[in-house]
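Hey, can you fold this?
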Amino acid sequence: MARTGRNFWLWLVISVFLTSIPATIVLMYDQMRRLSPRRVARGGAAPIRCTHCGGVIEPAEADEPDGVALCPHCHLPIDEATVG
């Protein structure tokens, strides 16, 4: 880079900003979209958080043999108080 007259540190800073800022924005948008209260208003059910492993589960993913919802990650029963 020195041979071509380009500044290494300037291009390093430019490349970091041009890749990390859009990636951060996309990840934050995805996270906000998952946790949005409008999701429940649109007819979708709120996600469930497992009290044992902390995993986030969609209500459709919870197995319900014998009427007990099981976490697909740790296979332990999910308390009803954890909905929402």
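Oh, and this one too while you're at it.
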Amino acid sequence: MWNIKLIKNNLIYFDTSALVKEFQVGISSSLILKISSTYRNDIQIISSIWTITDIISVMDKISQKINEKTGMFKLSNNDIKKLISTIVERIRTISNENTILKFVYLDHNIITDSRILTKDFHLSPTDALHMFTGYAYDCNYFVVHNKYFINQFPFKKYARMKIIDLTNENDRKLLVRELDL
């Protein structure tokens, strides 16, 4: 199918909003860390290479916001350097079969077919690209932390993927239970 060998039982697509949770303290951060730090043979996390540009955009937005308690920027220069070095290290491991997180490449079909989601459901091009990439790679779960996206998209057509809304406690519990975390 696409340029990567995936033989795991539980394929989990991390949308940018889910992947960013690993670096932000919040209600779903511990779950994301738990999943991404597991080294089980039956779990594979997938995210589009496009996620990297999304993370840099999110990082830029957050770095310009002021923390009301401290009066400092929400992301310091050291935080930004750590985030970038983590991303760069993950990019280096794209071809390593032993890593839990695989950044998958985009191809003509994914880009073309994701445009249908933009046209038919008025998704942003980025959200459509992530949704279709998870679908194209036969992921079991699509993990997202974006209430607007969840409420905007009719997921029934993509029913082979369980949508895990990280803002929903029941969805988080379902994922923990089904992955036996």
